Amino acid sequence: MNWDLDGQTAAVEEALAGGAPQRVGSFRFYFADQRWEWSEQVERMHGYEPGSVTPTTDLVLSHKHPDDRGQVAATINDILHTHKAFSTRHRIIDTGGRVHHVVVVGDRIVDDHGAVIGTHGFYVDVSATPDQDAVTERLAEIAENRAGIEQAKGMLMLVYDIDGDAAFKLLKWLSQESNVKLRPLAEQITEDFRAVRHAVAAQPEFDQLLLTAHTRVNGR
Asked: Which residues of 32-64 are buried (b: 16+ CB within 10 A; e: fewer)?
């Protein structure tokens, strides 16, 4: 996936800006100089005013919950060496001492020559996740009464605990990034979601399915 470093920035930020404040945001991490970029939403998620901090690997790790810091450090080390897409669920502590449960999903940044130069993706704050019974009931309702884009949007709302506007903008971002039309991508995400039993418990698996759904869209 080629990443137009100049042309795509505004589209990514716009796509991830919807919904409840601080709940969804984007990031980039460049391997050569270990340079991080955070969207305003991710800055606020960590307790910073936009533009007030320059993220570094040390700063990123300093905000991880002590019990999760080793896991995240190992993930960063792994992507530096393997250049693979990744998904992680962990806790961060903001500057005010508040704990946030986050899902971070990243895909590769590839330059015009096909070389992997970094990773980019999104943070989703899932601190308030619905219980499994509520998820099961609402999934049945969604599967029965909604189709296409609305169905995929509803499923993203459940999995990541974001509102409808943010879910739709996340779908648009994924569509733009993968250059796959929105409707077939939404249908593939819905199909993938149904294949994962107890989706909340299988969160990492769904994260990866979401990130790679465009590769399974065949002539929709």
From this structure: eeeebebbbbbbbbbbbeeeeeebeeeebeebb
Short-list 192, 26, 6, 217, CA closest to 107: 26
What's the pTM value of the predicted model, to 2 decimals?
A: 0.63
Beta bridge partners of 89: 103
Q: What is the per-residue pLDDT for 199?
A: 47
Q: What is the pLDDT of residue 137?
A: 55
CB 114 within 8 A of CB 131: no
Tokens read off for 70: 């080793």
CA atoms within 13 A on the CB side of 2: 7
Distance CA 8, CA 121 (A): 13
Q: Which of 181, 197, 183 is nearest to 152 (CA)?
A: 183
Question: Is there a contact between 193 and 182 (Cβ–Cβ < 8 Å)?
Answer: no
Q: How far apart are CA 149 and CA 199, in angstroms?
A: 19
2 DSSP 8-state letter: B
Low-confidence stretches of the chain (pLDDT beneath 50): 1-21, 130, 132, 135, 139, 141-146, 199-201
CB-based contact 24:162 (threshold 8 Å): yes
The residue written with tokens 């792994």 in the block is 78
Tokens of 194: 């149904």
DSSP string for 18-33: -SSTTSEEEEEEETTT
